[in-house]
Write a structure and sequence with these properties.
six-stranded mixed sheet; seven-stranded mixed sheet; FAD/NAD(P)-binding domain
């Protein structure tokens, strides 16, 4: 961990000198962790580097209905922009298949007002007893006497607070893991670079999210359209970083090209978002002495779809619960925090690993194969969905496609 000279505020008029838990990042994972810890009576500090929780938005804003229901989160009109019936997956040929929401992945069901959703979760954490500070950036960790000293920059001043447990919820660019000695670096083949426009004034089908696949459309990724209404949608693209080998493979160039070829989606751009997302296996381990990583910081993004809100909340809750147990025992060691993985792994690990393997196949598939798969399945009854039935349906029309796919299985 880092070391530094003591030029911080001698007495903080902002933060307490010590907390049971410090949570770095107030997205869905961080706020969920803070809530679970605070409701169990822990003294929790939740810090967010941005001026406002949930803003700027860096997300397509989709989330599955079943995922929220499983978490016991009831939809609120204040943070639901639109409810969709399902998704359409478009092949390069122009053919598409339609999936109902329950079949379409963890980010299809609702299109959120993501800023309002994040603020809702943060308010739950505050109402449970957490202290929340915005414009508060963690700039380093230092281990002292079996505890962690967290250095925070807040309105130009530097502060130090002590805690036995840090929960890193600082997203894709996470520094908490690096400071704590957890290996978080990613291979370019496990990163999608993204670019998105929020567009108004066009005509969108509010009942369906749209996904466009193809090596010319979005190498190693896809174009998405998440409708917030009939006239407004998030229109974005994710491209595998390892495929960005020229200016014409950059996500903005490809998205602009897509919109020229699909003029019905063109309208007034009211927001622009760019970033990156992991499409890797989840981190293992996602904890060490005194520290747990949650959500995007722990690479808990679905590698096939890029969705991560549900996984973030699951991991955040698991970390908050584990922190409370560790405080009760007075043991903050790696051995004690191992319980964190025992809590989140049974719920999402198998799915994340399975979809990582599916992503590895997806990025190798040619446009010709994409076209044949969609053509074979466009009249398929997806209520019978399983791998055997899918391959059987494809094989009846294109046996050579099943033969090609089998080399990756």
């Amino acid at each position: 961990m880092s070391s530094w000279s003591h030029n911080c505020q001698e007495v903080s008029l902002v933060f307490k000198e010590k907390y049971d838990v410090v949570v770095i990042g107030a997205g869905p994972a961080g706020s969920s962790a803070a809530y679970e810890a605070a409701k169990r009576g822990l003294k929790v500090l939740l810090i967010e580097k941005r001026a406002e929780v949930g803003s700027p938005i860096r997300c397509a804003e989709g989330v599955g209905k079943e995922g929220l229901e499983d978490l016991g989160i009831k939809p609120k009109s204040e943070w639901i922009a639109n409810e969709v019936k399902g998704a359409r997956i478009h092949a390069p040929s122009g053919d598409y298949i339609t999936l109902e929401a329950s079949m379409a992945g963890s980010e299809v069901g609702y299109v959120l007002h993501r800023d309002k959703f994040d603020q809702y979760l943060a308010k739950m954490a505050v109402d449970a007893g957490s202290e929340l500070y915005t414009r508060a950036m963690a700039i380093g960790l230092k281990r002292e006497d079996s505890e962690i000293v967290v250095r925070i920059r807040h309105f130009g001043n530097l502060y130090e607070v002590r805690t036995p447990i840090v929960i890193g919820a600082d997203g894709f660019e996470s520094l908490v893991g690096e400071w704590a000695g957890i290996r978080t670096r990613l291979d370019p083949k496990d990163i999608n670079v993204t670019f998105e426009y929020r567009i108004t004034g066009a005509k969108f089908d509010p009942d369906y999210t749209e996904f466009y696949i193809g090596n010319e459309v979005a190498p190693g990724g896809y174009v998405w359209i998440f409708p917030k209404s009939e006239k407004e949608a998030n229109v974005g693209i994710g491209v595998l970083l390892s495929r960005v080998d020229s200016e014409k493979k950059r996500p903005k160039y490809l998205l602009d090209k897509f919109l020229k070829e699909h003029p019905k989606y063109r309208g007034k751009v009211i927001a622009v978002i760019s970033g990156a997302v992991s499409v890797s296996r989840p981190l293992e381990p996602s904890y060490t002495d005194n520290v747990m990583l949650v959500g995007d910081a722990a690479r808990m993004i679905d590698p096939l779809t890029g969705g991560g809100i549900i996984h973030a909340i699951i991991s955040g809750r698991a970390a908050g619960e584990t922190a409370a147990k560790a405080i009760e025992k007075g043991d903050y060691s790696k051995r004690s925090l191992k319980e964190y993985e025992a809590r989140w792994k049974p719920r999402i690990y198998e799915k994340l690993l399975r979809n990582y393997l599916a992503k590895e196949i997806f990025v190798k598939v040619s446009d010709d194969v994409f076209n044949k798969i969609v053509d074979a399945l466009k009249d398929y009854d997806f209520s019978r969905i399983n791998t055997y039935e899918l391959l059987k349906a494809i094989g009846e029309k294109y046996p050579e496609v099943v033969e090609e796919l089998s080399q990756y299985l």
